[in-house]
Amino acid sequence: MRSKPITGALLLAVGVGCAAGALAQAKPETLVDQRVAAMRLQGKYFGPLVGMAQGRVPYDANIAVRNAGYLEVLAKMPWDGFDPSTKDLKTRALPEVYSEPAKFKAAQDNFNAEVGKLVVATKSGNEGSVKAAILDVNKACGACHDNFRAKQQ
Fold first, then answer.
1. Is residue 5 in a domain?
2. Residue 108's Cα: distance from chain center in Å?
3. Does 16 fall in a domain?
4. What is the CATH number of the domain that holds 43?
5. Domains of the chain: total
6. Which of 48, 53, 76, 60 lies closest to 125 in space, CA to CA?
7. What backbone torsions phi and psi does residue 149 show, to the nearest 5 degrees?
8. Per-residue pLDDT in tens (0 to 9) along the chain, 153 residues
9. Contact 144, 93 (CB under 8 A)
10. Are residues 140 and 110 in contact, defined by beta-carbon separation less than 8 angstroms?
11. Residue 71 lies in a domain
12. Which residues, in sequence order, are CB contacts of 108 under 8 Å at separation 6+?
């Protein structure tokens, strides 16, 4: 019977430790690394879809469904990495990310909405709808890059 209070105290200590870790501020460099990693993974899974939509890669419905599902999760990941603490670091993020946060948030929301439509389209099984949705995601992605990302030198 004594193990219950000890177990409860141990669980409380672990819970407090996890909460403290969750509240700790990540280093700005770590936030940048994480957002870059999330976007690289987006590219990994979106690239083949663009190839399918453009006819450079044979259409494969199974890969479209899988990659769209991965993209749906990945599309939500990078945004908290654009914390104001990262604005003075040397990255490809333009100052507008921080000076026009509502516009940047609208671009994120548009991208996520288009990815959601892509997921729905892949479940329909209609190749034409899937390819059109891929191109819409590509436009949303490009619009964000055009307005908020420096061109690579």
1. no
2. 9
3. no
4. 1.20.120.10
5. 1
6. 60
7. -130, 130
8. 555 555 554 455 555 555 444 445 789 999 999 999 999 999 999 999 999 999 999 999 999 999 999 999 999 999 999 999 999 999 999 999 999 999 999 999 999 999 999 999 999 989 999 999 999 999 999 999 999 999 886
9. no
10. yes
11. yes
12. 79, 144
Q: How far is CA 50 from the centre of its chain?
A: 17
DSSP state of 76: T
User: Is position 34 within any domain?
Assistant: yes
User: Which tokens hold the place of 2?
Assistant: 């004594």
Q: How far apart are CA 127 and CA 131, in angstroms?
A: 6
Query: Residue 99: which domain range?
Result: 27-148
Surface-to-core class of residue 1, CB atoms within 10 Å of its CB (0-12 exposed, 13-18 middle, 19+ buried): exposed
Q: Residue 32's Cα: distance from chain center in Å? A: 13
